[in-house]
Design goal:
There is one protein chain. With about 160 residues, the protein is α+β, with helices and mostly antiparallel strands. It has four helices and six strands; from the N terminus they run E-E-H-H-H-E-E-H-E-E. Strands 1, 2, 3, 4, 5 and 6 form a six-stranded antiparallel sheet that branches. It is globular, with a radius of gyration of 20 Å.
Length: about 160
């Protein structure tokens, strides 16, 4: 993992001073984000809105996503914190076209699904085979016929040094 530490002038030690303000230093590392849109029921959506991870994990489908996050050490690695992910509440709309086998709705109908957008990070230097295995696990566990999973280009993640 390539990292860079940057210390602004204001955080560097003053001449004759032994210490500077370490809060001013930042660390950058190159990662890719993986964002998964996951449908959930009303109870799981409410649990998430209340910050209740136990209630959220009681949703059987969403629990499978949590297991993937917990058992993939490459995902959400922040050193002293692991399995890091962010969750945003949302809804996803779609129209079911002929030939589809939808988990929600029927052909010709327009539907709205309660959805959690889950974002995690993976080091940009992660081996392509390892990344492919993780993405395959996500696709295989996803309850939708056509999962929506975004993989970003490499980007810099900024944290405290």
């Amino acid at each position: 993992m390539a990292t860079t530490t940057i210390t602004p002038e204001s955080a560097r030690p003053a001449r004759g001073s032994a210490r500077g303000d370490a809060r001013g230093a930042v660390r950058r590392r190159t990662v890719r984000t993986i964002k998964v849109y996951w449908p959930v029921g009303a109870a799981a959506m409410a649990a998430c809105a209340e910050g209740d991870l136990d209630g959220l994990s009681s949703d059987e489908s969403f629990a499978s996503l949590l297991r993937i996050l917990e058992t993939s050490p490459e995902l959400g690695d922040f050193g002293v914190y692991g399995d890091v992910f962010e969750v945003a509440l949302g809804a996803e709309g779609f129209t079911v076209r002929p030939g589809a086998r939808p988990a929600l709705g029927s052909v010709g109908g327009r539907f709205l699904s309660s959805t959690l957008a889950v974002t995690t990070h993976v080091d940009a230097a992660t081996d392509e085979d390892a990344l492919a295995r993780i993405l395959t696990r996500l696709v295989d566990a996803h309850p939708w016929e056509v999962p929506v999973i975004e993989l970003s280009a490499p980007l810099d993640l900024v944290t405290r040094a």
